[in-house]
Amino acid sequence: MSQIEIRPALAGDREPVLAFCASTWEWGDYIDQVWDDWMENLAGQLLVATVDQQLAGIVHIQLLNETESWLEGLRVNPDYRRQGLARALNEAAMVEAMRRGATTIRLAVDSHNVASIELSESMHMRRVGDFALYTARPFTTPPSRAPQQPVRLATLEDLDMIIDYLNASNIFPLVGGLYYVKFQALPITAEFLEQKINSQQIYLLQRWERLDGLAIAEIRRENQQQRLSVGYLDGTTIEAISFIAYNLRRHLSELQLEQVRVYAPETLLIHDAFAGVEYDTDHAIFCTYERSLE
Hints:
By secondary structure, the protein is an alpha+beta fold. The protein folds into two domains: 4-102, Aminopeptidase (3-Layer(aba) Sandwich), CATH 3.40.630.30; 132-291, Gcn5-related N-acetyltransferase (GNAT) (Aminopeptidase). It is built from nine helices and 14 strands. The protein has helices at residues 14-21, 31-40, 85-99, 114-122, 159-167, 190-198, 238-250, 252-255, 268-276, and strands at residues 4-8, 44-51, 54-63, 68-76, 104-110, 126-136, 152-153, 178-181, 184-187, 202-207, 210-222, 225-235, 259-264, 286-292. The strands form two sheets. It has a twelve-stranded mixed β-sheet, sandwiched between helices. A two-stranded antiparallel sheet has the order 8-9. α7 crosses α9 (268-276).
């Protein structure tokens, strides 16, 4: 009978793991880009599974704050699949998250990855939202379109208005009430909004003396690019969403950034709004799952 062990990753595990991850997708995998960070980050734990002392799978658990955890990077060597390793790795990661004080765990999975979706649901995780990625580069020529009204940075005086807006939003529940960054997500709470306002990372569109849309964004270096990462974008109409997306793209040159990338639900309203200001998408949809650990 095979002997299965799950343990923290060691430096010497890197090359064998990268070898069986090399063909995860047609283009390869991203594990080689994050391995060192996952090994060194004290707020997370990289776990490996061995079968008869042979490396057979990995998973990473990340603590995003004192109570929120994120599950990512689940991989199983094709030679060792259908032996329950994926479930065992996820369960070990959940135990590690609880040991560190997490009360919630989440993950994101491609909507076409049926096996991972079935595994998540069998482990009592519930689907709380979906998102797709929309990207655009700076305008190559100065935009001729004149803004009807500029998007502005939020202040703490706007906090109650923002909360009221999100409570009535149709988009907010579609993404699980979450802010996405680095393919991870945190709940958008009053405390979170206050932090983002203080960091000057919330942009508001006000028209006719009411809030008509907003974006929460931060500058990040990802994949050797300086990006404006928009983790949440909302608007009451196609026009409002399009106008905010247009303004974010227009500001790329001023911020000396190479790309804007938006996490947003793949709805007809969102799709038409972004298409109107020439954002690209590959139409891949990711499902976010959540489970309480209490």
